């Protein structure tokens, strides 16, 4: 089976339902990282699983925000992580909730790992 490339206009932000509800103000989502780091941490499709397992180990449930970058009002930059050397998308400014095209609940496996994979059919 041929695997198609993930859409370039989609990025993902991993959070929890509680954090999403806490930091959603009117039509914007402004997590703590926006104040602390100056941007909102995101991942591309192939980075989601490793990010979830690295940054959210010990959680039982996550909320994966699917973001349409063409609908963003804030600037997006792909920047190199100093630890891994990989480039990750960062949103510099609030995330307009209209750019969130889906919210996916992700449950941890019995061993605590998150298994998140995407195959594009388009």
UniProtKB/TrEMBL annotation:
<dbReference type="InterPro" id="IPR009297">
    <property type="entry name" value="DUF952"/>
</dbReference>
<protein>
    <submittedName>
        <fullName>DUF952 domain-containing protein</fullName>
    </submittedName>
</protein>
<dbReference type="Pfam" id="PF06108">
    <property type="entry name" value="DUF952"/>
</dbReference>
